[in-house]
């Protein structure tokens, strides 16, 4: 790595189907490495809740488990990346999801002499995803993720992270929508594995195991990417 590259903030990408653990792992990496997690899913849900023009256009598409238009998602991501905290380095969770988005990201980064540092593919089996997604929920206060079977709060009904007592489940975390989201993943997002492999920035990791084991593997990959 040359001296110039070393001074650039890291741009990490987590690739993987819905339920692979991108959000959970991105939050852990954010804490550990001082990166900013950018989830286009979270940004879109905030736009839907705020009733913005982009949110109104995205709502029905998200509920159907399909992909929101590249135009909307790229604009949202570009605005967020322009905020000052992103100079610390970012971990992208759920973006890019199409080749058009991946190219737009390359172009955006190129304007400041940056490149994608590493794209990590979380490799899982589809059958496992429906079980994982149907049991998941988050703290309404801080967004900490939980699961009915795999990760329950230490004290029932109380968030481990912030002590919040209200939790929420996503509208699109149901079996029918998950099936559509998996179809969208395989058709439109999985080709990005080849895209980043061709750029020699791809790392693959087995994401079928326990959250902590996966986190350890990811820390190793991200640590190496940032050293
Ligand atoms: P997620 O929270 O990443 O699972 O995203 C939830 C939903 O938001 C997806 O099923 C899509 O409808 C939409 N979405 C999130 N990120 C993108 C993206 N990069 N491109 C298109 N649609 C997206």
Folded structure, characterized:
- Helices cover 49% and strands 15% of the residues.
- It is built from 10 helices and 8 strands.
- It has a 5-stranded parallel sheet with strand order 2-3-1-4-8, sandwiched between helices. Strands 6-5-7 form a 3-stranded antiparallel sheet.
- The longest helix has 16 residues, at 211-226.
- By secondary structure, the protein is an alpha/beta fold.
- The protein has helices at residues 3-7, 22-33, 40-50, 53-63, 70-81, 99-110, 126-134, 175-189, 191-198, 211-226; strands at residues 11-15, 36-39, 90-93, 118-123, 136-139, 145-147, 167-168, 202-206.
- Mean pLDDT is 92; it is low at 1-6.
- The structure holds adenosine monophosphate.
- Adenosine monophosphate (AMP) binds next to helix 3 and helix 4.
- The site of adenosine monophosphate has 18 residues, from helix 3 and helix 4.
SSE inventory with pairings:
Layout: H1 3-7, E1 11-15, H2 22-33, E2 36-39, H3 40-50, H4 53-63, H5 70-81, E3 90-93, H6 99-110, E4 118-123, H7 126-134, E5 136-139, E6 145-147, E7 167-168, H8 175-189, H9 191-198, E8 202-206, H10 211-226
Parallel strand pairs: 1-3, 1-4, 2-3, 4-8
Antiparallel strand pairs: 5-6, 5-7
Bound molecules: adenosine monophosphate (AMP).
Q: Could you give a quick summary of the protein structure above?
A:
This protein has 227 residues and is an alpha/beta fold.
Write a concise keyword list for the protein shown above:
227 residues, alpha/beta, 10 helices, disordered N terminus
């Amino acid at each position: 790595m040359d001296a110039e590259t070393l001074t650039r903030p890291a741009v990490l990408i987590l690739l993987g189907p819905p339920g692979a653990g991108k959000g959970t792992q991105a939050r852990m990496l954010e804490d550990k490495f001082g990166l900013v997690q950018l989830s286009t899913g979270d940004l879109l849900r905030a736009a839907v809740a705020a009733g913005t023009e982009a949110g109104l256009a995205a709502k029905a598409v998200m509920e159907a488990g399909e992909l929101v238009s590249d135009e909307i998602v790229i604009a949202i991501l570009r605005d967020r990346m322009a905020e000052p905290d992103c100079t610390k380095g970012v971990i992208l969770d759920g973006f890019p999801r199409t080749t058009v988005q991946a190219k737009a990201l390359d172009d955006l980064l190129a304007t400041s002499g940056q490149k994608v540092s590493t794209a990590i593919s979380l490799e899982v089996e589809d059958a496992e995803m429906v079980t994982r997604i149907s049991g998941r929920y988050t703290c309404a206060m801080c967004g900490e993720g939980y699961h009915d079977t795999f990760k329950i709060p230490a004290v029932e009904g109380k968030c481990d992270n912030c002590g919040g007592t209200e939790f929420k489940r996503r509208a699109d975390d149901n079996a029918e929508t998950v099936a559509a989201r998996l179809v969208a993943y395989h058709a439109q997002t999985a080709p990005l594995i080849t895209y980043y492999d061709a750029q020699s920035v791809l790392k693959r990791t087995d994401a079928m195991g326990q959250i902590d084991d996966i986190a350890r593997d990811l820390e190793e990959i991200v640590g190496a990417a940032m050293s």
